[in-house]
Known about the structure:
The protein is an all-alpha fold. Helices cover 52% and strands 0% of the residues. Helix 3 packs antiparallel against helix 4 (58-65), helix 3 (36-53) packs across helix 5 (70-81) and helix 4 packs across helix 5 (70-81). It is elongated and about 40 Å long. The model is unreliable at 103-119 (pLDDT under 50).
Amino acid sequence: MVLGQGRIRIEPLAAEVGWSRKRLWARFRSQIGLSPKRAAQLIRFDHAAHRLAAGYSPGSVAAESGYADQSHLHRDVLTFTGVTPTAVSAAPWLAVDDVAWTAREPVEGTKKTSKNVSP
């Protein structure tokens, strides 16, 4: 789910682990507290929020993150944060970490910095 940035169908995931869809849902709920679908939505939203914070436009973030359109992204952002994508893009709690959130391509007008990370 994380590698696919939340864009995974549940049936193939259940087949991959050798469980029925019902068993997968039950195990997810008992181990994580969420359904697989909700977990995938949160993973996709997390990816999108960090892309917004990195300076990408809502339209490009929506397309890249697997949302049907920009209004779909807007609804998810409002649902999960209570604010608009513009407010999320300026949120200090989403400061982009070079190690955890490597940009695919440089954002125009920004300078990447490296941080020393100790093991």
